[in-house]
Amino acid sequence: xxxxxxxxxxxxxxxxxxxxxxxxxxxxxxxxxxxxxxxxxxxxxxxxxxxxxxxxxxxxxxxxxxxxxxxxxxxxxxxxxxxxxxxxxxxxxxxxxxxxxxxxxxxxxxxxxxxxxxxxxxxxxxxxxxxxxxxxxxxxxxxxxxxxxxxxxxxxxxxxxxxxxxxxxxxxxxxxxxxxxxxxxxxxxxxxxxxxxxxxxxxxxxxxxxxxxxxxxxxxxxxxxxxxxxxxxxxxxxxxxxxxxxxxxxxxxxxxxxxxxxxxxxxxxxxxxxxxxxxxxxxxxxxxxxxxxxxxxxxxxxxxxxxxxxxxxxxxxxxxxxxxxxxxxxxxxxxxxxxxxxxxxxxxxx
Length: 350
Hints:
Layout: H1 3-30, H2 34-56, H3 58-70, H4 73-97, H5 104-126, H6 128-139, E1 155-158, H7 160-165, H8 167-174, E2 180-184, H9 185-195, H10 200-218, E3 223-227, H11 237-248, E4 251-254, H12 257-265, E5 270-272, H13 273-279, E6 289-297, E7 304-307, E8 313-316, E9 326-337, E10 340-347
Parallel strand pairs: 1-2, 1-4, 2-3, 4-5, 8-10
Antiparallel strand pairs: 6-7, 6-9, 7-8, 9-10
């Protein structure tokens, strides 16, 4: 039997006793049969208690626990600090309010304490970064070198897709990654599941991901850690990554567009490899000369298509007749799309 069942039984008994008492009182006032009124209203109270008790007790508690469970450590500390400060201010203010005539002396102290507790929590949560920097200024003196003033280690969570993609290993070799790459056990388990898949393509992808992790661990220019941290509950891997990133206040490295959008909506910083790849591609302006190896036909009549070394597609007007040859062209238009950059050009006039 669950706790909610016992709570319902207790609530049913309490409301039933209250209903009987109220029914007897109403019967005496109306000069009616007290036994009948007590039984009827008592049964009605038992029914109300059976239905409403969970919504007054266990359901709100579960909602609060779920909300606090999703908050990170700094937010929990801010909530506790705001609650303490609000209760202290409310208690001090209740002393003069208790000197007022009734009913104000009985109502206003309680109202003020609850109001200041709520305001304290709201203020501390909204300005948690400001309070953190203020307290850090009191605790530490930046002008005095000490181990406490050393930079805090920054972690970057890797998701499964970016490991399988493999480009993270090449980026790590350049030394541009500042921080420790954090790989969780549940991501490793998903990689192993993919590597053991009966589908040959998925199996190759999973094994490639494991090889990329092995290369990262051998790379001396980047730190890699395997973490046993997990999120309680039966959540998908992407959701676990977002919740864990919020909990330990770190970034997530991915190339998954959907994970990118969901994480941004929840306030998690995302490092997208596809955006990085688009940012480092060569920039061409209309009118610039460009030599293109045309390899295939385009979608429109007469078009030819070629590619730069970084994968950028070049669409050459009237370039179909030059398929298989290198052609000097002039850039006419550059388009930036969600899939990447597309360049339009025309053969250079002789």
